[in-house]
Amino acid sequence: MISDSFSKEENIKNIVRLESMLNVIGKLNAFTATTQHIKKEYLDGFNYYILIFNLDTRETTINLYKANQINEATLRYMSLEKTYPKGSQYEIVLVSGDSIKSLQKAYPNYFADTAMFVRLLKRILSI
């Protein structure tokens, strides 16, 4: 936990512990790589997307599904969640949208520029 009631040193220790436990930098870097990839791809014409983030390699796999394939997308998502449970090197997300712009609007956290935050976090971790 980070708090004003803790000393600066205690807060830094907590940030280091939390980053190590949550792999924040790895996840944010993977999400950034994915959004750059998504922006380059032509995804219009599809309605459902399974994003598979490999946090170790920063590679992303995107499975595309049309509106009439929601059951197939859901089954695939559930299968992937069982194969790669929370805490594994993979982050699995099923999102919906009718265009890349609607995805960016509906899921802004996946498309945010996190570079400055990562730089600041790395600076704190190096103290």
Characteristic key phrases:
17% strand; 54% helix; three-stranded antiparallel beta sheet; single chain; 127 residues; 6 helices; alpha+beta; elongated
Overview of the molecule:
The chain has a three-stranded antiparallel beta sheet, sandwiched between helices. With 127 residues, the protein is α+β, with helices and mostly antiparallel strands. α2 (24-40) packs antiparallel against α6. The protein has helices spanning 8-22, 24-40, 70-83, 100-106, 108-111, 115-125, and strands at residues 48-54, 59-65, 90-96. It has one domain. The chain is elongated, with a radius of gyration of 17 Å. The protein contains six helices and three strands; from the N terminus they run ααββαβααα. β1 and β2 (59-65) form a beta hairpin. The protein is 54% helix and 17% strand.
Shape verdict: elongated
Query: How many helix segments?
Result: 6
Termini, distance in Å? 18 Å
DSSP strand count: 3
Fraction of residues in H or I helices: 40-55%
Q: Name the helix and strand elements from N-terminus to C-terminus, one letter apiece.
A: HHEEHEHHH
Q: Rg from C-alpha positions?
A: 17 Å
Quickly count the domains: 1
Strand-residue proportion: 15-25%
Average pLDDT value? 80
Largest sheet: spatial strand order: 2-1-3
Helix vs. strand class: alpha+beta
Low-confidence stretches: none
Largest sheet: 3 strands, antiparallel
